[in-house]
Design goal:
Low-confidence stretches: none
Strand order of the largest sheet: 9-10-11-12-13
Distance between the termini: 46 Å
Number of helices: 14
Structural class: alpha+beta
Shape: globular
Order of helices and strands: HHEHHEEHHHEHHEEHHHEEEHEEEHE
Strand content: 5-15%
Number of domains: 2
């Protein structure tokens, strides 16, 4: 069966709850979405506001506090918010990537420790972190335990040890001073275990972002393409195969939504680093190629975007009195009206918490080309 680029776009929007807001609680919504990029504290809130009817940010506060949603270093070696039931398999699947990327880095190797030394440290560190500990407390524990400067060791271990971020309060549950707590799972596992769990991650990826190729899965998780191909091959008995644009071999879970390519897609104001912008090797599924470098900056920052008819059409930022929207191409009046309605709702959410959560990234606006700019008043 063949599937077009437009149909792939609509499949992503449907599974990511972006064809129409849903009446779901935040925990069930996160389960369906699979993974919310969370390296900027406000982004999971804005991501769910985009997807849920009458989104109440207090519900997300509670989910983080009660641990039904977990914030941890996972796919692409960055912070994600995921359903608590998904976290163990995701962490185990990602362990070779997380461990290899950190223990081979000069910031760790300059400590003089070996990878085996780091592995041996983890069980006792997890015992110390049985209750929430600040980054400073954990570094002090490492320094006392090893008698060496702790920074490089902690930088490495915090990424691959099964730790989750503990809420610290503030407008978005997590502030700039991180706190960690043991996630309550084994400290390590062999490659065979990791590969088995990558199969579970592959299935969840397709449920939330499919159809997808082995290259897409490898990009989403930041694993070698060989591991991604093997994980999908192991699931060949339960997955469907499709032919995508250019003959690309795609996989999908049976029964997952694949709407028609002409299904209407409402405008949205997407969060920084929203996962749909980063989940594919071919990012043209959502980002027109000419706009990719405008929204994904050279240092990896991914700007908050305007989504128009399912595709990135510009960027936005909060300003005094509303939301400033910069469109990369002319937009019709009815689209601007839809974006204005979204801006009023978003401005109300931000006003109640933090009016300018992305202010530190405003410097990127000086690098944008000539655009159609409007301030959408709150």
């Amino acid at each position: 069966m063949k599937i077009t680029a437009q149909e792939l776009n609509r499949a992503t929007l449907a599974r990511q709850l972006l064809l129409g807001r849903q009446r779901l609680d935040v925990v069930e919504a996160a389960r369906r979405i699979v993974a919310l990029q969370a390296q900027q504290a406000a982004s999971p809130y804005i991501a769910l506001w985009n997807r849920l009817t009458d989104f109440d940010p207090a519900g997300l506060d509670v989910a983080f506090t009660e641990g039904t949603l977990v914030k941890a270093t996972l796919m692409r070696i960055t912070l994600h918010a995921v359903h608590a039931d998904d976290h163990p398999a995701m962490q185990a699947a990602m362990l070779p990537t997380l461990r290899g990327a950190r223990l081979g880095d000069r910031r760790f190797t300059s400590s003089g420790l070996s990878a085996a030394d780091a592995d041996a440290l983890v069980p006792d560190l997890l015992e110390f972190a049985a209750r929430p500990r600040t980054s400073g407390e954990l570094q002090a524990w490492i320094a006392e335990r090893l008698g060496i400067p702790p920074e490089g060791v902690w930088w490495a271990v915090r990424s691959f040890a099964p730790l989750r971020h503990a809420p610290t309060g503030g407008p978005w549950s997590f502030g700039s001073r991180n706190s960690y707590v043991a996630a309550g799972m084994p400290a390590s596992g062999g490659r065979e275990i990791a590969d088995k769990h990558l199969q579970a991650l592959a299935q969840r990826y397709l449920e939330g972002f499919g159809p997808g190729s082995a290259a897409d899965l490898a990009q989403f998780a930041l694993v070698p393409r060989g591991r991604a191909r093997d994980a999908l091959a192991a699931l060949s008995g339960v997955l469907e195969r499709l032919e995508g644009p250019g003959g690309t071999e795609l996989y999908d879970v049976p029964g997952a939504p694949r709407p028609a390519g002409d299904t209407p897609a409402p405008p949205r104001l997407m969060a920084m680093w929203d996962s749909i912008l980063l989940a594919y090797a071919d990012r043209a599924r959502v980002i027109p190629p000419d706009y990719r470098k405008l929204v994904i900056r050279s240092n990896g920052d991914v700007l908050p975007t305007l989504l128009v008819d399912g595709y990135v059409a510009g960027v936005w930022r909060p300003v005094d009195g509303g939301i400033e929207a910069a469109a990369f191409h002319p937009l019709p009046a009815e689209v601007w009206e839809g974006l204005a309605a979204e801006a009023r709702s978003l401005a109300a959410l931000l006003a109640a918490r933090q009016p300018h959560p992305y202010r530190r990234y405003d410097r990127w606006w000086t690098f944008l080309p000539d655009t159609q700019v409007r301030v959408l008043l709150a």
